[in-house]
């Protein structure tokens, strides 16, 4: 029995209006909602993005007329945008995009695609079967017929694959992935998001060397980055595991250096064990993918740059912020010391370091990197002992009140410091500020007057000599030992 879709009031109104408009055209136009919306509705998931597949080529022309019709019904809509099938295609294949009743709607003609050497297809009008066959997975190739209110499964296995939680391609998988290698990453993304089992023939096709290689040769870095980012939204551990099991890591996280990749899977396994005990977010999952590049540098304009950062910025074309967040984690590990004897200021100072912020994310990564060298593929007593060591450190941070303390401004600002010590801004100035910061962390109950007294005493006593020594260029004056 073909399942039915339960429409919300807004969706029911939209479908009624679309049906009414399309059937009154001369000739009538068949309308089907395609792909992800149908899948999500069958899974009882919310969805507000509708792809409407039409029996005529131009979705843009149809959308313009439909919006004009809706205006006569006093239905509020957005303006109609135009999206070409690709820059070299003629206008009769253009997509129309607009917002209707709060729903994001793309109107596009049913189409068939053929591929040459590029993943950009040659597009022509097609049948519903041809349109369904060109899609990445059978579960994404379902249609909802606006006129019959029925789900249509032209691949004849989309519904069963959705019920049995199988990821399978409408066409033979090698052909599907050869036409567009990006579909490999989409397969991984949907398999992880919906906890699907990838069909064995699909897995075998993905593992073929020429199929995997096409990801880095035919798909833009930007598109790879977008798919990887989407993978991290739902079940990132399964996504990273699939990438490893399918042998995709070097194709997805591509770089001119190619270190052994085993640490990526291992660090992902460790991170999955920490979820619920420590902060775990998308940046940390990206860091697991970059783990094989830890400690490796790449020359750029005569400078040594961390390969982990290059993979994120150049291999995935992600933002500078994301690149820095990932690269900083590997630097933060060098600063975080879980030693129980560390004092309040020692802990507070490394918490304030730009590479460590946010400190709780860096603390999680420090656990991963501490467990990694002894990782045996499963959580054991050694791993648990390390995790508890860092949990104790986190508890000390809480007990010491450092979470709030590290963001408090200095009790004495720069202008006041100049006046108090009768000095001008200089490299020494920053050294004094660092000393005041450490003192303030060690004396949380002290106020501004206390800080002024301490600073004045230090300046007039042994502190000045120490601070000036710490301001000397590295190595200091030849033959002179740097005082601490």
Automatic annotation (TrEMBL):
Record SUPFAM superfamilies: Nucleotidyltransferase, Poly A polymerase C-terminal region-like
GO CC aspect terms: mitochondrion
UniProtKB keywords: Nucleotidyltransferase, RNA-binding, Transferase
Single biological process term from Gene Ontology: tRNA 3'-terminal CCA addition
Residue span(s) of domain Poly A polymerase head: 31-166
GO molecular function: ATP:3'-cytidine-cytidine-tRNA adenylyltransferase activity; CC tRNA cytidylyltransferase activity; RNA binding
Domain of life: Eukaryota
Region named Disordered: 465-484
PANTHER family the UniProt entry points to: CCA TRNA NUCLEOTIDYLTRANSFERASE, MITOCHONDRIAL, TRNA-NUCLEOTIDYLTRANSFERASE
Stated family: Belongs to the tRNA nucleotidyltransferase/poly(A) polymerase family.
Protein's name according to its UniProt entry: tRNA adenylyltransferase
């Amino acid at each position: 029995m073909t399942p039915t879709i339960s429409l919300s009031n807004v969706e029911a109104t939209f479908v009624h209006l679309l049906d009414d408009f399309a059937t009154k055209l001369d000739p009538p136009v068949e309308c089907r909602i395609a792909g992800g919306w149908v899948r999500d509705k069958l899974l009882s998931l919310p969805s507000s993005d509708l792809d409407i597949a039409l029996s005529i080529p131009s979705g843009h022309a149809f959308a313009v007329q439909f919006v004009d019709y809706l205006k006569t019904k006093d239905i509020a809509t957005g303006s109609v945008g135009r999206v070409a099938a690709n820059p070299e295609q003629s206008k009769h294949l253009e997509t129309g995009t607009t917002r209707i009743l709060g729903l994001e709607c793309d109107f596009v003609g049913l189409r068939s695609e053929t591929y040459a050497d590029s993943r950009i297809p040659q597009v022509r009008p097609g049948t519903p079967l041809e349109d369904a066959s060109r899609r990445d997975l059978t579960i994404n190739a379902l249609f909802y017929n606006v006129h019959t209110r029925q789900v249509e499964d032209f691949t004849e296995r989309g519904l069963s694959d959705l019920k049995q939680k199988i990821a399978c391609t409408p066409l033979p998988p090698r052909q599907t992935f050869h036409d567009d290698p990006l579909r490999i990453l989409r397969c991984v993304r949907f398999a992880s998001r919906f906890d699907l089992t990838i069909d064995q023939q699909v897995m075998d096709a993905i593992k073929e060397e020429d199929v995997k290689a096409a990801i880095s040769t035919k798909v833009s870095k930007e598109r790879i980055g977008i798919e990887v980012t989407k993978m991290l939204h739902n079940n990132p551990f399964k996504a990273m595991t699939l990438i490893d099991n399918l042998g995709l890591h070097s194709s997805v996280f591509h770089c001119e250096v190619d270190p052994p990749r085993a640490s990526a899977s291992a660090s992902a396994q460790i991170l999955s064990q920490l979820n619920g005990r420590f902060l775990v977010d998308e940046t940390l999952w990206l860091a697991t993918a970059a783990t094989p590049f830890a400690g490796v540098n790449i020359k750029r304009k005569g400078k040594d740059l961390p390969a982990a950062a290059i993979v994120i910025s150049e291999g995935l074309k992600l933002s500078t912020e994301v690149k820095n967040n990932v690269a900083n984690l590997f630097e933060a590990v060098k600063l975080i010391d879980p030693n129980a004897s560390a004092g309040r200021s020692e802990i507070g100072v490394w918490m304030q370091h730009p590479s460590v912020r946010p400190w709780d994310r860096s603390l999680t990564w420090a656990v991963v990197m501490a467990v990694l060298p002894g990782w045996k593929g499963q959580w054991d007593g050694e791993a648990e002992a390390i995790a508890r060591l860092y949990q104790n450190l986190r508890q000390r941070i809480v007990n010491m009140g450092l979470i709030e303390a590290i963001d408090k401004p200095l009790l004495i600002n720069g202008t006041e410091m100049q006046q108090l010590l009768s000095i001008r801004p200089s490299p020494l100035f920053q050294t004094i500020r660092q000393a005041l910061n450490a003192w303030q962390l060690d004396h949380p109950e002290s106020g501004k007057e206390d800080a002024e007294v301490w600073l004045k005493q230090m300046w007039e006593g042994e502190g000045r000599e120490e601070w000036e020594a710490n301001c000397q260029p590295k190595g200091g004056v030849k033959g002179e030992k740097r005082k601490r």
